[in-house]
Amino acid sequence: MNFEMYYKSRQGKMVNVLKELVRLESPTGDRKAVNTASASVVDELRKIGARVVRLPQKDIGDLHIVEYPGRPHPDLSDQILILTHIDTVWPVGKIQTMPFYLAGDKIFGPGVLDMKAGLVMVLFALKTLYELNLRPAKKIVLFINSAEETGHKESHDEIVKLARRSDLCLCFEPALPGGALKLERKGRMVVRLEAQGKAAHGGTPEKGVNAIEELLGQIQRLDRLKKYETTVNVGVMGGGSKANIVAEHAWVILDIRFWTNDDKERIKSYFRDLKPIRSGARLKHSVESLTPPMEKTKASEELFQEARRIAKTLGQRLRGGKSGGGSDASIAANLGVPTLDGLGPDGDGIHAEHEHLLLSSFVERTALLTRLLLEL
To answer: What is the extent of the structural domain holding 15?
Structure first.
């Protein structure tokens, strides 16, 4: 069956569903908004006979596991894990200044590319299998994360459990600009570094220990970490209480990106061994979130070659590339599970106001997904 023509005839419906999902704004920190958006997706999946398990959460939106049956097989453990997320970086109300709209082959809107289009692709692929009475080669297990943009222990742990029971993993983060899949990704470590000093009067600073100055000195030394394309971003910082008081406490949150697990251990060791610069100062650090790197593996390369073969039968040419951003796919890949990432549509402007996807790619990638589910 020509699935690309099939979805081209339904692209109007796909765009309308995407439009409604984008309008249901779902910033990571807004539990109510995220749950409303998730409900709109899982309600549609229930209509096609999918089994939905909701995992209630207190400080983030609820997590959802959706199961769709595969062909009858002696080994009922065969399953494909699909990773998606419903949360976005955009606050509620952003739709007013960054509206959903079409311009030629481009679709704009907050979260349209990262990654509500990926969710709509999965929804339509499963609907198609249901309506055409086609059974996927393996059971499909869809995970809808509510806090991918910030990372969260509960969602991380759930992905680990699901990945360990899966034969392979497909992630619907957007493709690299130009359409390439993401075969390698940087890991991400968010570190909170705190300095404790001693308060004193601003007129006699020598009687105190300035925590802000200690922290600034430590920040200047972070260049030591910047090897092998490791990057360090000083994202947020604060400290002190008044201008005429020597700052007793200061803190900074660092976003560190790296290509390999060896780099990860090097970074951990750096902070474990960190010593104060100023006499009397004290330091402590905590890792607020950690996403492992997605290193290239033989298993994932073999899966990529099989996906390329299937894409070729659709007249599509798949390429592979590298991304500096992290994703949940790295968690599965780090466990040795064959993983493909960047299966979402082509586009540009992730986390930027010109965020958009290409409608043609939206259709093509949905056709590819459908074939992957039938053949992998």
So the answer is: 3-185+293-375
